């Protein structure tokens, strides 16, 4: 019978248990993860089960690290996520949060596109630190991703996106995340993708400002290759700003929508 121990195939006898494997291969492991779930009681293993053994506080080798990072994934996710290529248009409140979430789940390639630098006012909702002020957002985010998941291929484009360069920039990705603050830029990107790039899927957002209800932010499938997240009403304007909680909720709707698309789940 074949199982996977820390993502590597291992032949074991029928009836072998998780703790038998632990005692044989890593007796000092504090955490035993079976198919994405931490177990505290011994369990008989089945064909193709995934078992991960972790010792708290131990820094693994690079060869082991990726397997341990994905230990809590749902089985079958990583193989598909690792092959995915996602472009993020804008690295502000939405885009920086989406990038971090996609990095944590291990998307194989992230294309980060933004022309701006990090400013102090960005820090109330964007995934940067004081040390990043003055840095290009593309460089700052690439640095952060390298600290979170060094196994991701990160490409950057420091460019202002318009209808003349969208097709070239996003040619080599499967899914595009629209993460602009500017309504005109949003419309340009969405319309260009829908009209000229029918083989791409775009995940956009509209209506994430203020501190209105969490539950007003929803994910809608507008057409087969177009998803829209937000309440479609709460735009940023004087008296109604952008803040971390609601922006992050919408961004993670976008990130989870991307994950669902990668996994073949096309409905919301």
TrEMBL record:
Pfam families: ThiF, ThiS-like. SUPFAM superfamilies: Activating enzymes of the ubiquitin-like proteins. Residues 76-267 form the THIF-type NAD/FAD binding fold domain. One of its GO terms (molecular function) is ubiquitin-like modifier activating enzyme activity. GO terms for biological process: cyclic threonylcarbamoyladenosine biosynthetic process. Residues 1-57 form the ThiS-like ubiquitin domain. InterPro entries: ThiF/MoeB/HesA, ThiF_fam2, ThiF_NAD_FAD-bd, ThiS-like_dom, Ubiquitin-activating_enz. It comes from the Bacteria. This is Thiamine biosynthesis protein ThiF. It comes from Thermohalobacter berrensis.
């Amino acid at each position: 019978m074949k199982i996977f121990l820390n993502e590597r195939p291992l032949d074991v006898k029928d009836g072998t248990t998780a703790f038998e494997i632990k005692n044989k291969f890593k007796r000092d492991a504090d955490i035993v993860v079976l198919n994405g779930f931490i177990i505290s009681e011994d369990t008989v293993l089945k064909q193709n089960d995934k078992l991960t053994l972790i010792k708290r506080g131990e820094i693994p080798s690079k060869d082991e690290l990726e397997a341990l990072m994905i230990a809590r994934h749902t089985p079958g996710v990583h193989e598909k996520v690792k092959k995915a290529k996602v472009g993020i248009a804008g690295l502000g409140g939405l885009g920086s949060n989406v990038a971090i979430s996609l990095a944590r789940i291990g998307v194989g390639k992230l294309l980060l596109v933004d022309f701006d630098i990090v400013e102090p006012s960005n820090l109330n909702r964007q995934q940067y630190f004081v040390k990043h002020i003055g840095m290009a957002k593309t460089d700052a985010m690439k640095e952060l991703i390298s600290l979170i998941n060094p196994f991701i291929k990160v490409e950057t484009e420091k460019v202002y996106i318009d209808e003349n360069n969208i097709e070239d920039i996003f040619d080599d990705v499967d899914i595009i995340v629209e993460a602009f603050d500017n309504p005109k830029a949003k419309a340009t990107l969405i319309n260009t993708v829908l009209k000229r790039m029918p083989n791409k899927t775009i995940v956009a957002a509209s209506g994430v400002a203020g501190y209105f209800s969490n539950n007003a932010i929803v994910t809608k499938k507008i057409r087969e290759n177009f998803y829209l997240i937000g309440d479609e009403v709460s735009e940023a304007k004087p008296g109604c700003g952008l803040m971390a909680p609601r922006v992050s909720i919408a961004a993670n709707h976008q990130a989870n929508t991307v994950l669902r698309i990668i996994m073949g789940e096309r409905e919301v």
